[in-house]
Each structure stands twice: as C-alpha cells, then as structure tokens.
Sequence to fold (633 residues):
Amino acid sequence: MSTPSVPQHCPSPRELDDLELLASGALAPTTAFDEPGSPVTLTLPDAVAEAAASAGAVELVDPEGLPLARVTVPGGHVEPLTHAQYGPFRRLYLTPTQVREQYAGRTFVPVADAVTAPQLESLAAAGPLALLALVGHGTPTLSPVALIRATLAAASHLPDAVVVAVPLASHDDADADHALGVQVVATYAGPDPVLALTSPSVVEEVAQQPSRNHYRSDIQAIVDADQPAPSDQGLVLFFTGLSGSGKSTLARALMDKLLEQGGRSVTSLDGDVVRRNLSAGLTFSKEDRETNIRRIGWVAAEISRHGGVAVVSPIAPFDETRQQVRAMVDEAGGAFFLVHVATPLEECERRDRKGLYAKARRGEIPEFTGISSPYEEPEDADVRVDTTGRTIEDALDDVLEALRDEGYLDLTSSTPVVEEGALAPVSKPPVDAHSVVEEGALAPVSKPPVDDEPLNVLFVCTANICRSPFMQLVATQMAGPDSNVAFSSAGTHGFRAHAMDATVAGTLPTYDVADASDFLSRPLTAEMVARADVVLTAEASHRTFILDDHPGDFRKVFTLGQFAEAVSAADDGLSGRALLDAVAQRRGSGDPSLDVPDPYRQGTGVAEQVASHIASLLRVVVPALTGSRKIAS
Fold:
C-alpha cells in the first residue's frame, strides 16, 4: 500500500510569521503549532486537513509555492526545509542565534511604532542598543516596511544602535500577545538587559505640548508617507446589492464625479467587465462567485496600495467574502468603504431590465441571488442607500455625504480640481427631478455646446454589414449635404473592410440611397466611442457590450429605439447637443422590445421589414439632431 502524498498549504500571513519564529527557536519554549494554551496555531482547510491526517504531515509553502517547512499532523512539530529568501530588508531578519553571535552585550529595545523625539532623547544615553522592530502581521502601527525604515532612521540619530527585524505577529488577544512578546524579546536578548519605551504616546504628547515636533523630520516623512490623511489614502469604494438595485448606476455616477473633480487616479472594477476579462470561465456557483469577488478585491487592494481609488460594484452576496476583501485592502494600507445599495427585492424584480428575475423565477437561472441563492445583508456598511423612487443625484448624495464625513473624499462641492494652466471646468446641467435610478440607467450628458463643430453620431450593430451601415447611409441621405451632423458606423464584432450585405443593400434605393459600393465595414474601437457625441445601437446587447468596456461613457450610449422614444418626448425646439442634454435627462426605456432585429441571411422579406423599421426610427431621430424637424416620408 502506497504512502499518501503530503499535501501543500500556504498559511495566512500571521501563520507564516509564527512559522518563521518557530523555525528559528524565537518562540522557545514553544516549539510547535497548537500547543495547549498557546496562541500559536495553524488552521488547515478541511480538504487539506483530511489529506494531512492521512499523510501524517503538511508541507507549508510561501505565496509563491516555495516549501518552507513540514509540520506533523497531529502534533504541529516543525521541520524547517528552507527560510524566506526575499522581501524588503530580509538581511535584518536574524535568528536569535545570529543576534547573540553578532550583538551580545547590547541593550535590547522592542519597537512597535515610530520612535518619537522624546524617546530618542531617552535612548541616547542608554549605551549600545539593538532595536528590535516588531514587524509581524498586525503588530506594528505602521506597515512592516515603514516601521523598519523608521527604526533605521531612529538608529541613525543614536550613538550606537543596530536594527533587527522580528516577525512577531498579533493574535488578537492582548494578554496572550503581550506574554508572547515578552517571551520572544527575552529569547533574542538572552542575558542582556531589555529596555521598554515607556514615554507618553504621541497622542498624549500632542495634548501636552501642541507646538513640539514629536518625530525627527526624516522619521516624520516616513510616517506621513505610510499613514496619509484619509483624503490622500488609497480607497476602495465597494458597492454591494441585489441585481437591479441601482449599484452600478450609483457607482458610475460616482466615477463621473471623481473624474470631473480630478486629482485622484480612479479605476472602475464593474462586475460584468471583471467577469469577462479577469474571471472568464467562472460560473455563478457560490464557490465561483466568491472566487470572482476575491479576484476583484485583490486588484482593488493593489490599486489602493498605490494611492488610487477603485470603484467596485459586484453583487457580492456573501459576508465572508466581503470581509476577505476588506482584509486585503487593510493589509495593503488602503481604506475600505462599503456602500449597501439596499433597494428591496420587490423593487429590483419590478425593474428587471435584463429579464433575469423572470428567468430565475422560471428556474432557468440556478442560484440566482435573491431568488434561489441568499443575499447576506451587510451589518458593517458605511452607508445604506435605498434607490426606490429616488433620482440619481438624490441617492448619490447619501454616498457623497458619508464619504465627506469620513474624510475620504469631498465631492459635495461642484467645483472640480483645476491644475494650473488647465482649462476651466464646464458646469453640469441640473438633473431632471423626475429621473429615477434604474440599474444601468443613463445619467445626464454634460458636454459643452460647440455649435461650429459637427455632431458625431455612431451607429453600432454586430458585424457592421447590415443594420448599422443601413443606418449610416440612410441617415446621411436624410440629413442632406449641408448638415452639421456626421454619421458613421461600426460593429461590436465587426468584419474589417467587408462590403455591405447584398440583401440589405438592395433595400437602399427605396430610401434614395443609390448603392453601398463605397462602404467597407470596420470593428468598433475605444477611439470611435470616445470621439462620438452619441452612440446608437441596434440592440440592447450591443449597448451592454459597449458599456462593459466603457462604463464612463454610459451617458451617451442608447439603442436607436430607446433614443427615438426619448426624442419623441423632448421639446420640439431642441436639436443637436441641446437635444442630447435633454434626452439624457429624460431617458427613454432600454427595453429589448425596442431592438432592431438582425436581418442577416433572413431573406429579402425580412430585410425589407427591418429597413422600413430603421427608416421609421431615423425619421424621428435625424431631423431632431439636425434641427430640420422635417423629412419627407
């Protein structure tokens, strides 16, 4: 009978720190995980624990898969295989044996925070020192790297001081952690004296001596860089809520506010976009949904690590996964701001813009959140917003006020940040008080009127050989040669340089377009979307495709049917960009029933029906855009 193979497991950051101290003997007399009464424990996932019990051991690896040690199961005894070889200041991570060999005779000083100026004064006369920077997970106030840098800076101000990094982790038990710290420091110090820093805390010093500098300037710079003010801190804005709750709409509106104000690097991590680009292949099972959220969380945390703002809007139905994301962001030094878009299920299901709830009720979508899979409402949300019956601006104000009150962002002012030499900001038109938040609904367009520049209209279908070229050619003919509106087209999955479909092209003469011999298809690009003043798609699915890649442009992308419906309700005196502003405020429905069906390879009869349908929509849209308000039938 073959011996079961030893499973591998990557421990948590705290467990990795404990492993390093166990392997070096720094935790003596503790020599193993899970000793009675010890906070030094090792938790294995159920599957790994079962395999480890069969094999009698588990192999612990670092995040890159390097085997570090073999641990007996049961027993928790550690057999070191190698040690961590990389990481900042790795040269300072010495074992107690190495410290005794190199620094015996010094006074040992445990350091868990930046050393203040008064503390430096008290240490200056203490003789040769070994500063033990306690950099384990959860122990220092600063990040581990910043604590080491600050401690090295402190050492440079002392007559004779060296720095040793000690990965003493916190175990969320103040008494146990204190006892463990005393034990570890004593192991490093051996028979040499230990000096505790007992001067007043920085908070107490500020209260007692408000005008005094509490850190030397070089240490202060390290502290400031590591612990920026909330307004400068990396930030993850995490919107969670049911499908149709309005979370994506609010997230996009917030993105617009951030971009309009300027001054911060902003990244959108929309759930649908992430699923296509980062989580392709994952299903909607509970396990895969959690994996998807963790991937989003990891990327968002990395953005916050570098001082950026990540705007995230997945459903994220499970509290455990949201807590994991919060921990990732905390570990990266960012701030995690949770927005619960708490629109009731009944309202979300009433909206059902994508028809998903109806499919879920019919059993066509398994494990659909709110219907056949639970949504665990967060109890730790920073702000809770119910969008039922509210305008976008009104609902967003709840979020903006909470962000301002917490000190992270102040977007309540309408004045954007303008860099020196930059163009003055363009004011945003008021939001229609009757515009109610819908998931994916359109926000007001806020482009400055430029009457002497052509209005660019981009038509989009799938391959750019049937519907969108018909729209382009017929709209151009309807507008006439003197129009100040330029029409173009492209395909979401467009062919490159293909002729127009012959059957659909055959309908053009009915609409006074001689032929399509000069037309060549092209695929849609980001530049085309950016250049367009309005994008009109054949189907709602094309609109979704565009917004998945360009969520910031959602205010100017409509289906042709949706746009025509909104134009019909607009003031007859409006045209051009003024019309776009008004239509964006009034917003017609994006109902798929307004789609233009695909006539490709459906025969002449279907092609003629589709052509007639498109022409009827263009007779509404083109004169409104051009200002003529009159086109012959």
Notes: The CA atoms of residues 28 and 601 lie 78 Å apart. The first strand starts at residue 8 and ends at 9. The chain has 22 helices and 16 strands. Confidence is low (pLDDT under 50) at residues 201-213, 415-451.
